[in-house]
Amino acid sequence: MTMKNMPEDNFKHQGMRKKLIETIRAKGIDDEPVLEAMMRVPRHFFLDKAFLNQAYDDQAFKIGAGQTISQPYTVAYQTSLLGIKKGEKVLEIGTGSGYQTSVLLELGAKVFTIERQKELFDKAKKFLPGIGYAPKMFYGDGYKGLPSFAPFDKILVTCGAPFIPADLVTQLKVGGIIVIPVGAGEIQTMTTILKTSETGIEKHELKNFRFVPMLEDKAWGK
Ligand code: SAH
């Protein structure tokens, strides 16, 4: 696919990306469809040109408005927990740079993504279609989800949530899964919520991570 004004993704970039994928694999991610999807998304498109090397380090990186593009390992870890199948409806909280969104799209998901920082929302809205990615993008509050588009097969939260938002559980299909880092402080525990029936959930707590906080209404504008 060639698009007008598309940034360059050459052999050098692809080589750097291959190395990054091998680093993630060495850290224990063995979900081939996820690793292949990440191989297809040129992460350097999501960072300023000057930061080419950082784009292929396994590190989080500042993207403006006090936010970060998640560490590639974290993207791989969260995405593999979701177990995306082609055509599934996925709600993502925290569009940020749109990198994680693009990985979900590469796996064939229909992605609905919410961002609460206007600056980042506007940027992603303009940028993603230009590199061939077309999620449904919303400027709003992730705690509320998207009731008018519910239910979702899967829900992914990419910011640190102080608690599990009840509206997200409501908007999940029975049999669906939420992947959410939970913790009010600096450290969050990656948590999966399986919806076992209309009223039942099964919760699993996994490894610890560090995310930027999922801000609540009262913190808007801070
Ligand atoms: N998935 C992103 C990661 C961005 S960091 C990426 O790949 O780049 C988490 C994002 O969550 C930030 O952009 C932050 O602004 C956003 N966020 C924080 N609180 C939120 C809320 N209540 N609703 C929606 N987005 C929120």
Describe the overall structure:
- The chain has 222 residues and is of the alpha/beta class.
- It has a single domain, classed as Vaccinia Virus protein VP39 (Rossmann fold), CATH 3.40.50.
- The chain is 30% helix and 25% strand.
- It has helices spanning 11-26, 32-40, 52-55, 72-82, 99-106, 118-130, 166-170; strands at 61-64, 67-69, 89-93, 110-115, 136-139, 152-157, 172-182, 188-195, 201-209.
- The strands form 2 sheets. The chain has a 7-stranded mixed β-sheet with strand order 5-4-3-6-7-8-9. Strands 1-2 form a two-stranded antiparallel sheet.
- It is globular and about 50 Å long.
- It starts with 10 loop residues before the first helix and ends in a 13-residue tail after the last strand.
- The protein binds S-adenosyl-L-homocysteine.
What's the layout of helices and strands?
Blueprint: H1 11-26, H2 32-40, H3 52-55, E1 61-64, E2 67-69, H4 72-82, E3 89-93, H5 99-106, E4 110-115, H6 118-130, E5 136-139, E6 152-157, H7 166-170, E7 172-182, E8 188-195, E9 201-209
Parallel strand pairs: 3-4, 3-6, 4-5, 6-7
Antiparallel strand pairs: 1-2, 7-8, 8-9
The structure holds S-adenosyl-L-homocysteine.
S-adenosyl-L-homocysteine binds at residues 67-70, 93-94, 96-97, 99-100, 114-117, 120, 141-143, 158-159, 212, 214-215.
Keywords, separated by commas or semicolons:
222 residues, alpha/beta, Rossmann fold, two-stranded antiparallel ribbon, 7 helices, 30% helix, globular, binds S-adenosyl-L-homocysteine
